[in-house]
Specification:
Blueprint (H helix, E strand, L loop, with lengths): L3 E10 L3 H19 L2 E7 L4 H7 L7 H6 L3 E6 L7 H13 L6 E7 L17 E7 L3 E10 L7 E7 L2 H16 L5 E6 L7 H13 L6 E6 H10 L6 E4 L1 H14 L7 E5 L7 E5 L16 H13 L3 H16 L13 H13 L3
Parallel strand pairs: 1-2, 1-3, 3-12, 5-10, 8-9, 8-10
Antiparallel strand pairs: 4-5, 4-11, 6-7, 11-12
Bound molecules: 1,4-dihydronicotinamide adenine dinucleotide and magnesium ion.
Length: 358
């Protein structure tokens, strides 16, 4: 029988994005070949800051319609030194996340074998988290404006949007995520002492939704105290849910505590599966190391494993993570993790492990 075939859109975009996505495609293709149970058909989109500089657009007319035909999107990073970051982010990444209603951003964090946490007393089993970030509204909803430009009284507003609909759907997803994990614990992060409207609605919705999940233990934290708890009591946390802004910041801290931003994956999910979901490493385009051959491809490999799991290929996902863990344990890692290997060597080591000849 012909294997299941997935159609994946690859958007490597800027900086180290093309370096790590190329490595990710190589590894996914080798995995499909080695397991034989599925196949992947990649379609490459060259949407990037270069296309923006040439055409004035990141996504050409009709581009989103093309993307909709795929089963998933494998994304690198967007951002160039000569384009303002808010133009590149809104022009490409958010221009996909928002219309595709990828409202749940999922960021698993754990310490891989052989990798040490900057926390002196943190053992591997102490840090095993999934951060669920609200990905469609909050502080990044795109509401607000600027007036009286250049005047002394120039005014700018950034309006945070919180809707009952948006919070309920995200909160249900977070409880379901916690329910599937061994410890069944969910920590709801807000700032409902100072932000007394939207964050209080978050607290109320969390309390209501928690009644649908009696087997999940919920607790609440204010975001400032949460940073302290992540550092001092990492073992007390499991699944974490927070707003777009709060979780953006907390997940970078989480990645650093687990060893490096160069290993952290993220999924932008439409849990209704009406639109394709988008999978990307957490890191950006890292122009400081672009072209040097030292970008860490592990974040992209882990991202690929998350994408396989979302597509239902659990065995392939676990096989890929096992190979990543094996090469980390052997110390075949890039300089951000204290190693001396380059992107190509790490990729070759993972490929060899997948093929079983390492
Ligand atoms: P960054 O994540 O690109 O880099 C931060 C630091 O981490 C740099 O020192 C970089 O060398 C290092 N780093 C990142 N990924 C690495 C990897 N795979 N291997 C080894 N080291 C790695 O964040 P930064 O510098 O704040 O932003 C650079 C550009 O990327 C900006 O234009 C920003 O807007 C964009 N960006 C895009 C994101 C996306 O596409 N989702 C996310 C974050 C930033
Ligand atoms: Mg971020």
């Amino acid at each position: 029988p012909s294997p299941r075939t997935y159609s994946i859109a690859a958007i490597p975009a800027d900086g180290i994005g093309p370096e790590v996505i190329e490595a990710g495609i190589e590894v996914l293709s080798a995995l499909a070949e080695s397991l034989g149970s599925f196949a992947i058909d990649f379609t490459h989109y060259d949407w990037s800051s270069d296309t923006y500089k040439k055409t004035g657009k990141y996504i050409p007319d009709g581009g989103l319609e093309q993307l909709k035909k795929h089963d998933a999107i494998f994304f690198g990073a967007v951002g160039a030194p000569d384009v303002p970051d808010h133009i590149s982010l809104w022009g490409l990444r958010l221009a996909i996340c928002q219309p595709f209603q990828q409202y749940a951003n999922v960021r698993p964090t754990r310490i891989l074998p052989g990798i040490s946490s900057p926390l002196r007393n943190c053992k591997r089993e102490d840090l095993d988290w999934v951060i669920v970030r609200e990905n469609s509204e909050g502080e990044y909803a795109g509401q607000g404006g600027r007036s009286h430009r250049g005047c002394a009284w120039e005014t700018a507003t950034e309006v945070a949007i919180f809707t009952r609909h948006g919070i309920i759907r995200l909160m249900r997803f977070a409880f379901e995520t916690a329910q599937r994990r061994r410890r069944k614990m969910l920590t709801v992060v807000t700032k409902s002492n100072a932000q007394r409207n939207g964050m209080v609605l978050w607290d109320e919705v969390a309390a209501a939704v928690s009644k649908e999940f009696p087997d999940v233990t919920m607790d609440k934290m204010l975001v400032d105290a949460m940073t302290v708890r992540m550092v001092q009591k990492p073992e007390s946390l499991d699944t974490i849910v927070a707003t777009n802004l709060h979780a953006d910041i907390l997940s970078d801290l989480a990645a650093a505590l687990a060893g490096s931003i160069g290993i952290a994956p993220t999924s932008n999910l439409d849990p209704t599966r009406e639109h394709p979901s988008m999978f990307e490493p957490i890191h950006g385009s890292a122009f400081d190391i672009t072209g040097k051959g030292i970008s860490n491809p592990i974040a992209t490999f882990w991202t690929a494993a998350e994408m396989l799991a979302w597509l239902g290929e659990d065995e392939a996902s676990a096989t890929l993570m096992k190979s990543v863990e094996n090469i980390c344990a052997r110390g075949v890692v890039t300089p951000d993790l204290g190693g001396i290997a380059g992107t190509k060597e790490v990729t070759a080591a993972v490929l060899a492990d997948i093929k079983g000849d390492s």
